[in-house]
Design brief:
With about 525 residues, this protein is α+β, with helices and mostly antiparallel strands. It contains 14 helices and 21 strands.
Length: about 525
């Protein structure tokens, strides 16, 4: 078996400045070396979220908390440029289809000064294994076995290469966690990261300080202040005045800072892949020509401009474009906007603008989603569709999708999270097993739509293939199969934009929150 530890470099850079977490596009930004380094050793980052109040990575693993914990906690592996690479693990290797062997680093300490041991790792794994938000990634595990003081075997009940994503979960000190409990841990998490907890003022900020015994590389930053400012305009004022160094930007921010030599903009995929899905319980979407017509009718460029403030890129595949080894560029040739083709396909079914095909589109009430729905409705109308938009609060939409009632909706707009491997995320929406578990908003079976049996068989084969090259080729094949079946209308890869002090260097932006390990300011 080949090791799944090799470094996979990006061969594809997005050239549009327009989907969690490099200037000009792409999923990462490593600021390059420039001039000398200044003596400034404090950085202030604005979190656009409100204070979560709990920073436990086991009971409260939210995006709000991750802004802070991403620089405190670490896992055995981390997701980098579309693949998992060793982190606290020195190496990991499939020794057979059901056994993953992990060797942990010997030089790692927790923020309380105690060394990281195999016992700490297994204890932390068991916390993740039972936590509501992460338990699903561990269902294939039979047991976790200590082999020696640096070696662990993860024994699976069935082959599934996506188990590796579970090893990105946080590792903490068994002794500390048992002393303070999850509540105490949530108020002062201890990990192995480059920065450790220093101060917390509820509703205002968290301060981190450099961990002197950090095992990895480090820049010149000694103090990180993370301020909770949900109002973008206020964050921008603070950035322009030099009070803060990094903020999350929006369309108006981009316009405001253009030409400001003291501020640079960094664009990155945020891991969210917007799509129009089909309720395959509805007879109205069973005909392939209907799904093809809708795919041709949608104007993705308009959606990026109108619904996403120009921040995003059109999507044509279930795999993000920055996952270079497995992305199939042939998908770009499928379903470019062509109203005439869309109209012709509906015409073959007896429908036209004067006798439109009626569908109901379910969406939530967020401004961007409502605008996406309007854009889909208006574009589809030109081809002969008559789409009724049904919008509710997000929790209600989730409940309606869980019911799968064809009387409630034919189409829906959601986002596929792609912060981890493609097959892991696909399994949450496309697999037959997910349908049977009630977790699949598409509601298809092996017979619906036609050809789904072959798709599901190939999908399962990919999840059981531990050879990287073979898995990537099979994934490319699966993408074309999905395009021919039209299981969804992929519309936008979302992006995030950060406005940053132009002298700040060494940060890393990916689909996860920004990593500050190697940061420094130019002189």
């Amino acid at each position: 078996m080949k090791k799944l530890t090799k470094f996979i470099s990006l061969a594809l850079a997005l050239v549009m400045v327009l989907s969690a977490t490099a200037c000009g596009g792409g999923d990462k930004k490593e600021s390059g070396e420039a001039g000398g380094k200044s003596d400034k050793d404090t950085i202030t980052v604005v979190s656009a979220y409100t204070d979560p109040g709990n920073f436990s990575t086991y009971s409260q693993a939210t995006a709000q908390a991750a802004v802070v914990t991403a620089n405190i906690m670490e896992g055995l592996v981390r997701f980098y440029e579309g693949a998992y690479i060793p982190n606290l693990a020195e190496s990991f290797e499939w020794i057979d289809d059901l056994t993953l062997e992990v060797k942990i680093r010997k030089d790692v300490k927790f923020h309380d000064g105690t060394p990281m041991t195999v016992e700490d790792v297994i204890f932390s794994n068991e916390l993740s294994r039972t936590a509501t938000q992460s338990a699903g990634g561990w269902v294939m595990v039979d047991n976790i076995e200590k082999i020696d003081d640096t070696t662990i075997h993860y024994n699976l009940k069935y082959a599934d290469v996506d188990f590796i994503q579970a090893l990105s979960g946080s590792i903490t000190s068994k002794k500390y966690y048992e002393e303070v409990g999850d509540q105490g841990f949530g108020l002062k998490p201890i990990g192995t990261g480059c920065f450790m907890w220093k101060d917390y003022q509820t509703g205002d900020h968290v301060t981190l300080e450099y961990f002197e015994d950090y095992w990895g590389t480090h820049g010149t930053i000694k103090t990180v202040n993370i301020r909770f400012i949900s109002e973008v305009s206020q964050a921008l004022i603070d950035l322009e005045n030099g009070v803060v160094d990094i903020i999350t930007a929006n369309g108006s921010t981009i316009t405001a800072v253009e030409g400001n030599k003291d501020i640079k903009l960094e664009y990155s995929l945020n891991g969210l892949h917007e799509y129009v899905g089909f309720n395959f319980n509805s007879e109205k979407v069973q005909d392939l020509k209907v799904r093809q017509a809708l795919s041709y009718a949608i104007d993705r460029e308009d959606i990026v401009t109108a619904a996403r403030d120009g921040i995003g890129t059109p999507s044509y595949s279930l795999v993000p474009t920055n996952y270079t080894p497995e992305y199939n560029e042939k998908c770009n040739d499928y379903y470019k906007t062509d109203v005439d083709k869309a109209a012709a396909l509906l015409g073959e079914l007896g429908y036209s603008t004067s006798n439109p095909y009626q569908l109901t589109l379910l969406t939530d009430t967020s401004p961007a989603r409502k605008m996406e729905a309007e854009q889909v409705k208006n574009a589809a109308a030109k081809a002969g569709f008559d789409i009724t938009i049904s919008s509710f609060e997000s929790a209600t939409v989730t409940s309606i999708l869980a019911g799968g009632n064809a009387a409630d909706y034919d189409l829906f707009i959601r986002a596929l999270g792609q912060q981890t491997s493609t097959t892991y995320q696909m399994g949450t929406i496309f697999s037959v097993a997910a349908t049977e578990a009630g977790n699949n908003p598409f509601w298809f079976t092996r017979e619906t739509p036609a050809g789904m049996d072959k798709f599901d068989d190939l999908f399962k084969e990919i999840k059981q293939t531990t050879d990287d090259a073979k898995r990537y080729e099979k994934m490319k094949e699966l993408q074309i199969m999905e395009r021919e079946l039209v299981l969804a209308c992929w519309i936008v890869e979302q992006q995030e934009v950060r406005a940053i002090n132009s002298k700040l260097m060494g940060y890393y932006i990916s689909t996860a929150p920004i990593r500050l390990n190697d940061c420094y300011f130019e002189a």
